[in-house]
Amino acid sequence: MSFLTLHLTSSRAVLAGLLAAGSLLAACSSDSATTATAQSERLPIQGLRRTEPTSPTDTLPDPVPAFRLTNQEGQEITNATFAGKVYVTDFFFATCPSICPKMQSELLRVYKQFEGNPNVLFLSHTIDPAHDSIPVLRDYAERLGIKNAARWHFATASHDTIFALAKAYMTAAQVDKTVQGGFAHSGAFALVDSKRRIRGVYDGMEKSQVDQLIHDLPILLKEEQEEAATAAK
Amino acid sequence: MRLGGRTAGLCYALAAGTIGVLSLSGCFTERQNEGAQLYTTHCASCHGDQGQGLERLIPPVAGTDYVARHRAELPCLIRKGLKGPLVVNGVEYNQVMPGHEDLTDSQITNLLNFLQTNWGNQNQPYTIREASELLGRCNGSDGQ
Q1: A98 contact residues in B (CB cutoff 8 A)
Q2: For residue B68, what pLDDT band results from cuts at 50, 70 and 90?
Q3: How many CB atoms lie under 10 A from the CB of residue A20?
Q4: CB-based contacts of A207, cutoff 8 Å, min separation 6
């Protein structure tokens, strides 16, 4: 339980400390100068702890759980769809009259920024699966200018699945009949690495935070590239 | 300025309604900007901070034929919202726009006057009386 508390309250500093410890071990086998640079530029590992730790040193958050969703083209998408990629995720619904258009226009800005990069994918979950059928999602995506699901999936699943995922991605989403549209949700974007770990959470309603995401993405991509290169050796 | 007396009266009411710290000149400034402020609060999240809209999802309100052509319907559109397809600058949109029962007639007037006279729109502004009359068509006038 203490680990859970630690994690829920853990700051960037604590995570940075954990990362630094990890990097020290890595320094044994690589150039320490480059490690020092990489270390200072690494994004923290975030997320929630849902399971009991397996050992006293097992303090990292759980990875994004396994999921099975359907995208705007009717294709099944799972964690495997994002294998070897990084992705940005958010929660919305097609008829959302409040924050969604602003949020999706900000996500579109990120999407356009990484237009030519097949390693950066996008995943928007509807929190209103009863209304947002596959044709509705496809129409929404097309109207937003996303012609196919190659890089941006608009996904649906059962309510329970979506809401559990929202929690795992550190986004608040819930049914709330008192707000316009019937759902309360935050405009958070989560950045997820190829190991299913959350590496950043950004307020999609704040331009400065979305700018931070645009800044952070290449840092994560560099780390991914370096790890892939190390693994290939 | 044609409605100088009435505007000033509303102005006092507004000043009292806010924090009551506005001087007379400040008050007039506030009134002039009210439309822009209301736009930022109630419209910008969907229609964009420059009225640009969002791709083919949300229609623009800047430089649009719709704002000129549907001038008489706009007060009720703000009040009651909109559902179903509509065409703006030759592009079809189909989104739900929520209504705004929380705005007074004069706020709707100021908001629309801001839109009718900015961002490439050069249309005739409304008087509050005219806007209230137009709002009456959808039982949407609160007389304020």
Answers
A1: 45
A2: very high
A3: 13
A4: A106
pTM for this one?
0.76
Residue indicated by tokens 């791709």: B55
Domain that holds residue B42: 34-136
Tens-place pLDDT, residues A146-179: 999 999 999 999 999 999 999 899 887 766 767 6
Strand pairing of A68-70 and B91-93? unpaired
A208 vs B87: CA distance, rounded Å: 33
How many CB atoms within 10 Å of residue B50? Answer: 12
Tokens at A220, concatenated: 């994560």
Q: Sign (positive/negative) of CA torsion B131, B136, B142, B144?
A: positive
Using a CB–CB cutoff of 8 Å, tell me whether A225 touches chain B: no
Q: Which of A97, A142, A145 sits opposite B46 (nearest CB)?
A: A97
Write out the two tokens for A156: 């649906």
> Averaged over B20-39, what is the pLDDT?
65
Tell me what ipTM this predicted complex has: 0.71
H-only helix segments in A28-126: 32-40, 100-113
- Alpha-carbon dihedral sign for residues B29, B34, B40, B44: negative
**Tokens matching residue A61:** 């958050």
Percent helix, percent strand, percent coil in chain B, to nearest 5:
50, 5, 40
User: Chain-wide mean pLDDT for chain B?
Assistant: 83
d(CA A165, CA A167): 5
Residues in chain B, total: 144
Report the residue from B45, B93, B95 with minimal CB separation from A98.
B45
Residue with tokens 């000149």: B25
Query: A81 — contact with chain B (CB < 8 Å)?
Result: no
pLDDT tens track for B33-51: 899 999 999 999 999 999 9
CATH 3.40.30.10 maps onto chain A at 68-224
Residue B24 lies in a domain: no
Chain B hits for A180, CB-CB cut-off 8 Å, are: 98
Residue B110 falls inside a structural domain: yes
Q: The domain A68-224 is classified under which CATH number: 3.40.50.720, 1.10.101.10, 3.40.50.1110, 3.40.30.10?
A: 3.40.30.10
In DSSP notation, A168-192 reads HTT--EEE-TTSTTSEEE--EEEEE
